[in-house]
What we know:
Number of helices: 7
Number of strands: 2
Distance between the termini: 63 Å
Shape: elongated
Largest sheet: 2 strands, antiparallel
Radius of gyration: 27 Å
Strand content: 5-15%
Oligomer: single chain
Helix content: 40-55%
Order of helices and strands: HHHHEEHHH
Amino acid sequence: ISAFNQLSPTSQAQGSAVLDTIMPKSTLRPNVTSISKVLFDSSKELPAGSALDSTYNFGIHSFVNDLYSAEQYCPLTLFTNQNMECLHREGHVLKRSKAHVGGLSHHLLDLSQFDNELDLDPLSWQEAYQCYLTWIEEIGDMVSLKRWTTHFTTLSKDEAIRKNFWAIIEFDVETCQNYTLQ
Length: 182
């Protein structure tokens, strides 16, 4: 019926004529224009949650916060949806290493289990920095959030991503490694 409705009026008339010769006269065809069904009803919609900002809705894993608390670098690769899912589903079996920072002993996530940041593709990089900004909003201050939002917005211009992604990712990694959230 939907294909029939997409035909031109002339083709519909010709198709009806052919159907009339094939089908018995006693068969009634439904009037499709009178049949309507509501597909979406905004009164049944719920607001989207903003606290969890990943495809899998896991949020930022505590291992990332542990790295931050121990003043260790948190590579952007940890913030991809795939790696966040891995942390949440397989965190109990991931390697952790002991580190001494400021006289305290920490058992921190062994980052060698994750890909190098320089190997991120443009889509994964954008996905990761969006999650990273969500994390900064949770743990940082407004100055840090504004600084990193400007940083990523400037680097992610469409033309720049297409033409210079490898230079952008190298600059981004170097900048992130040299800057510590206060």
